[in-house]
Amino acid sequence: MAGITIGVASETAAGERRVALTPETCKKLIARGAKVRVQRGAGRGASFTDQAYVDAGAELADDAAATLGDADLVLCVQPPEPAALSRLREGATLVGLLAPQADAARGEAIVARGLQAFPLERLPRTTRAQAMDVLSSQAGMAGYKAVLIAATLAPRFFPMLTTAAGTIRPSKVLVIGAGVAGLQAIATAKRLGAQVEGFDVRPETREQIESLGGKFLDLGVSAAGEGGYARQLTDEERAEQQRRLGEHLKNVDVIVCTAAVPGRPAPKIVSAAMVGGMKPGSVIVDLAAETGGNCERTQPGETVDADGVTVAGPLNLASSGAVHASEMYARNVLNFVSLFVDGGELKFDWNDELLAKTVWPERAAA
Q1: Which residues contact 29 (CB under 8 A, 6 or more apart)?
Q2: Does one domain contain both 169 and 85?
Q3: Domain that holds residue 164
Q4: Same domain, yes or no: 54 and 90
Q5: Are residues 56 and 159 in the same domain?
Q6: What is the spatial order of strands in the sheet that 195-199 belongs to?
Q7: Do 213 and 267 lie in a common domain?
Q8: Do 190 and 145 belong together in one domain?
Q9: Do residues 100 and 166 both lie within one domain?
Q10: What SS3 class is residue 237?
Q11: How far apart are CA 35 and CA 59, in angstroms?
């Protein structure tokens, strides 16, 4: 039996360096009976050579059309363009961060071609799914990189230093949002020697923040919600939160914003007035820039001077750590597709909630 063909083409999104398949995961998919075809240069941005894929057992193709044209299963990081989707084999399976409902043309192309798409951002956040959770693995890299950017932009040391010129006090760093990215940011800032606080409207995050050596910033407003996500604050709660936070930010040197709600614009937490009240030389790094930013002064993709406060809105930070980000992403993808790649065939168990709740378009109930 020839087995299914898995195709991995070069990512086409601007600045994207990650790849959905590494030589390590390639070898494991081949061991499951699949044939793997990789576009030449697909792993270059993440420092994986074509020869490494060949050594793992993959075939190489010269372009995306030759790579994906007859593929039964296509793996990607970011979604292919609608035109590329329309050239996939009818009924093929597609796995990646696809966001089909964020782009009408993309969603239409998936439906028109009869593709079976698995947008991994839809994966249920359950214990069993942790090894497949690409949002968490990539957020960890983003949180780490955000603090390094902040440390570079800050006109001061992060750690306390005792020098011949006197004692340098540590920088005060506030991380807003204690999800995976925020917790990684707290841990990284702490390792760099800063005085670190973490703020989240979910009170259950206090223990996690404190376990990493940070101090939980309690503003007296709780937005504990279902499924580990925050609920929407009332107008009165938001006003009180804003007032207390604004006062606190006057003594903060660095803010790292990481608060995001899946499928929605990022909540505006740091107002322009708060930025105006911060000390000159302060720095804000806004990881939520891709969905509008947590700070009103954030300009996605740019670093700006907001009246003496530096505000950075980096995009796709996980891609800047492409080697480890790709390794984690590819292992997540391997663990997910192992649910249905079996003996060189695609076998879907629609009673498995990880498949049933991730697939798009959603399947009609039996």
Answers
A1: 6, 21, 36, 334, 337, 341
A2: no
A3: 137-315
A4: yes
A5: no
A6: 215-216, 195-199, 172-176, 254-257, 283-286, 309-312, 303-306
A7: yes
A8: yes
A9: no
A10: helix
A11: 8
Residues 65 and 187 in one domain: no
- 7-18 pLDDT, tens per residue? 999 999 999 999
Rounded to whole angstroms, how far apart are CA atoms 339 and 180? Answer: 25
User: Per residue in 239-284, pLDDT tens?
Assistant: 888 899 999 999 999 999 999 877 789 999 999 999 999 999 999 9
Residues in the chain: 366
Q: What is the CATH number of the domain that holds 342?
A: 3.40.50.720
Which residues have C-beta within 8 Å of that of residue 135, sequence separation ≥ 6? 120, 121, 123, 180, 262
- Taking CB atoms within 8 Å and a gap of at least 24, the contacts of 190-195 are 190/214, 192/147, 192/151, 192/158, 192/159, 193/157, 193/158, 193/159, 193/160, 194/158, 194/159, 194/170, 194/254, 195/170, 195/171
Is residue 249 one of the residues assigned to a domain? yes
**338 and 303, same structural domain?**
no
Kindly report whether the global pTM for this prediction surpasses the value 0.90.
Answer: yes
The two three-digit tokens of residue 304, written as one number: 């700006």
Does residue 127 lie in a domain region? Answer: no
Q: Is 15 exposed, middle or buried (0-12, 13-18, 19+ CB in 10 A)?
A: exposed
For residue range 50-77, list pLDDT tens digits in order: 999 999 999 999 999 999 999 999 999 9
Place of tokens 């973490």: 198
pLDDT of residue 366: 56
In a domain, 184, yes or no: yes
Give the best-scoring range by mean pLDDT among 39-43, 235-239, 262-266.
39-43
The whole-number pLDDT of residue 164 equals 95
Q: Given pLDDT bands bounded at 50, 70 and 90, which one contains residue 1?
A: very low
| Helix locations, the chain, DSSP H | 23-31, 50-56, 64-68, 82-85, 104-112, 134-153, 180-191, 206-211, 235-249, 272-276, 322-337, 353-356
Average pLDDT over residues 20-25: 98
If one counts the domains in the chain, the total is: 2
Which residues are catalytically annotated?
125, 130, 133, 136, 229
The residue type found at 112 is A
